[in-house]
């Protein structure tokens, strides 16, 4: 089955690229067809893949391709081709919502994985991003992505007041999508590549990624 999964948030530094790489490695480890399309302006994943292949001197386990999101026609053709892929297409989206090429991506995607952190700047920016997506869904015919919110890089449990505020955000996001299990901060998750996933990394990401896989499989029913 074909599924297009876009990692997106207008707030930078929330871990979109890292999660996309880890999820691709996890799916490949589970023997699922996967590829990554890097449309982020910095081309982080595409550049990492080139470096990884040079360093490990090995064959690529799955495809990583980089495309300029500024070209709307290229993005439209890209999404048409992505829909023909037999497996999961993971897209690392740019953080700038003003990019016109982002519209064909978001309008054709099946799932939007939106990483966020609990600091005020990130939650406020994420809320604005969600409002923009909901407006697009009202205005663009056929746009019906499932929104999957991922609390990411969480390094502390928080005091009572912080937990109350965090729950409020989670409850709000649950009204329009699904809040996934928290992805904690771990040094092992910073030591990633586009070739393989370590045993330690599998343990850390399992709850979150298995939840996503379940949602994907449920959508096929």
Question: Mean of the pLDDT scores?
Answer: 91
Task: Using the alpha-carbon principal axes, give the shape.
Answer: globular
Fold-level CATH name: Rossmann fold
Report the uncertain regions. Answer: none
Please tally the helical runs, counting DSSP H or I stretches of 4 or more residues. Answer: 7
CATH class: Alpha Beta
From the helix content, strand content and strand pairing, which structural class follows?
alpha/beta
How many discrete domains? Answer: 1
Q: What is the oligomer described by this structure?
A: single chain
Query: What proportion strand?
Result: 15-25%
What is the name of the CATH superfamily? P-loop containing nucleotide triphosphate hydrolases
Relative helix content: 40-55%
Radius of gyration: 17 Å
What's the SSE pattern? EHEHEHEHEHEHEEH
CATH architecture group name: 3-Layer(aba) Sandwich
End-to-end gap: 11 Å
Main sheet attributes: strand count, strand direction, barrel closure: 8 strands, parallel
Number of beta-strand segments: 8
Notes on the structure:
This protein has 221 residues and is α/β, with parallel strands linked by helices. The protein has a single domain (3-219), classed as P-loop containing nucleotide triphosphate hydrolases (Rossmann fold, 3-Layer(aba) Sandwich), CATH 3.40.50.300. It is built from seven helices and eight strands; from the N terminus they run βαβαβαβαβαβαββα. Strands 1, 2, 3, 4, 5, 6, 7 and 8 form an eight-stranded parallel sheet that branches. The chain is globular and about 50 Å long. The termini are close together. The model has no long low-confidence stretch (mean pLDDT 91).
């Amino acid at each position: 089955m074909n599924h297009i999964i876009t990692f997106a948030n207008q707030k930078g530094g929330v871990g979109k690229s890292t999660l996309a790489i880890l999820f691709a490695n996890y799916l490949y480890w589970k023997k699922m067809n996967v590829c990554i399309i890097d449309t982020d302006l910095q081309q982080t994943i595409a550049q990492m893949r080139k470096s990884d292949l040079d360093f490990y001197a090995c064959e690529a386990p799955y495809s990583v391709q980089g495309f300029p999101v500024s070209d709307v026609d290229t993005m439209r053709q890209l999404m048409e081709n992505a829909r023909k892929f037999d497996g999961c297409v993971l897209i690392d989206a740019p953080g700038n919502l003003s990019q016109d090429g982002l519209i064909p991506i978001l309008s054709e995607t099946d799932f939007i994985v939106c990483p966020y952190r609990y600091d005020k700047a990130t939650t406020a920016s994420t809320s604005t991003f969600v409002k923009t997506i909901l407006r697009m869904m009202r205005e663009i015919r056929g746009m019906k992505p499932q929104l999957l919110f991922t609390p990411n890089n969480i390094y502390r449990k928080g005091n009572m007041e912080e937990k109350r505020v965090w729950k409020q955000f989670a409850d709000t996001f649950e009204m329009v999508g699904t809040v996934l299990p928290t992805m904690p901060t771990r040094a092992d998750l910073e030591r990633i590549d586009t070739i393989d996933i370590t045993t330690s990394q599998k343990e850390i990401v399992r709850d979150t990624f298995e939840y996503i896989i379940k949602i994907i499989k449920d959508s096929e029913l």
